[in-house]
Amino acid sequence: MAMNCSRSLRSLILAEEAVGVVGRRTFTAGGKAKKGGKGSGAGDALNASSLSKEIKSTTVVGGNILKEGTDPKLLADSEYPDWLGHLLDKKPALSELRRKNIETLPYDDLKRLVKLDNRA
Question: Minimal CA–CA distance to 44: which of 52, 33, 35?
Fold first, then answer.
């Protein structure tokens, strides 16, 4: 009886080890990806050095999210909405907002102060 249990236990352990070996992720040596393989994206990505300066300055390279189509063209600054230019403006830090008088803060800064203070 003990012999049968040890054999079945041994076969169970070997089966688990085989599953563990099969289930592991492996990577290629040297870190190079296959070219043209499914999902590699090598055919979709354009080499940045192969693009001319004219194309780089007139189009949004990589802006096309659809399978078919072209990258969108850049427009003049007057054709974009005003709020778009303010997205990258620096916002005051919590310590700077705490130093200011709360009664004189604009609504957006007051809202930011409350949010950052709650986080802290």
Answer: 35
Find the length of the chain: 120
The domain spans of the chain are: 53-118
- 50-69 burial, b at 16+ Cβ within 10 Å, e below that, comes to eeeeeeeeebeeeeeeeeee
* Residue 14: predicted pLDDT: 52
pLDDT tens-digit series, residues 60-89: 888 888 888 888 898 998 999 999 988 998
| Site of tokens 């940045």 | 48
pLDDT tens track for 10-22? 555 555 555 555 5
92 burial level (CB within 10 Å; 0-12, 13-18, 19+) = middle
Distance CA 24, CA 43 (A): 28
Region of 81 (left: φ > 0; alpha: ψ -120 to 50; beta: rest) is: beta
